[in-house]
Amino acid sequence: MGIQTHSHSLRRKLLPYALYALLLIAICRLYFFPALTSLPSTTTTTAASTAGAGAAVDRRLTPKSPSPPPPSPSKGVVEEESGTNGCDYTNGKWVHDKMGPLYNSTSCGTIKDGQNCESHGRPDMGYLNWRWKPNKCHLPRFDPNTFLQLTKNRHVAFVGDSIARNQLESLLCLLATVSVPNLIYTNGEDNKFRKWHFASHNVSVSVYWSPFLVKGVEKSEETPYNRLYFDSVNDVWAKDLDEIDMVVLSIGHWYLHPAVFYYGDSVIGCHACNNKNHTEVGFYDVYGMAFNTTLKVLVNRGIDAIVTTFSPAHFEGDWDSLDACSKTQPFEENEKSLEGMDYEMRKQEVEQVISAKKSGEKSKRFRLEALDVTKLALMRPDGHPGPYMYPFPFANGKREKVPNDCVHWCLPGPIDTWNEIMLDIMKRWNL
Known about the structure:
431 residues; alpha/beta; 7-stranded mixed β-sheet; 4-stranded mixed β-sheet; 13 strands; 29% helix; 17% strand
């Protein structure tokens, strides 16, 4: 019993010394061998650091693997063009803005009837009080005097479909707050070709209906599909290029319609061409071809250009349902991902802009930029006319079905932001 007690007492006395010894060994190990405490790095070594014989041996011994696939559109990843005038307008969020727009439904006389949502009785006005805030830079409010000064003695032409016209009419309303636009030319069904003049700065602004950019024959009752020719641009606007200083290109939704595609006299495929002896090729690649053909012409002519990227629609269910686009607030930041057709259309446009900029980088006369609005437009399901494309659709009570416009944008509304970004791009051009 006494021996056991003595042994136990001795262990208690020696235990602290043993702990001190272990602690001393650990400190020495940390001091003299720090690398042993780190896990192996999983970071890929840069090309510069692996150059030399060792890297060459590794390449010979390692089987060549296929290139990794691009990021999945469902992740909402957006490819960025490096050095886009020092500001990435693509990524950001819509923030509440008490100031509201520069104009209203009564102060601007050039709003197309179908986009004048307030005068058509839309009851909620919250869609007017949001501003786009890029993550890494400041987007100034639109200054009409600055735009007119930058375009003094110049002609700015909007070329494309009804979204191009929508953006043009937004610009007219913004500019009309300081200078009166005088309509000096109009032609075509639904005023598809128009031109205004701002005498204060000798600025001309026009719109050309050209929903494919390239030559095309629109569908009809006799021919229920479009015919598009990708070897040349549409002459309805190209014939006036000697008088145009800057072109704003905006198309997209007409490429969803059935069509047969040509290059010269040869058929290269079709989209939704049932019962025809042509290969179904979809429309993404030919959509890129349209921009390739168009931008080559503008590069060669040295005409400044801005490509407004694809503007998503927000139909939910049937086009004539009461809830087709009934939201009254923007989507939250992670509530909606850029994917599917919206992603692919925007991708084709941005890639063609990057390619054209590289081919024209030696020209001091030519400036080009993508007005990248696809993602920020996707976040605004509340900005469309919806049933208020027609005046007071519920004046006689609630209806089971009602026509909706979930493609175009109310004026004033989110599309005013397109012109804020465009002006900021133009200011950076002139720094």
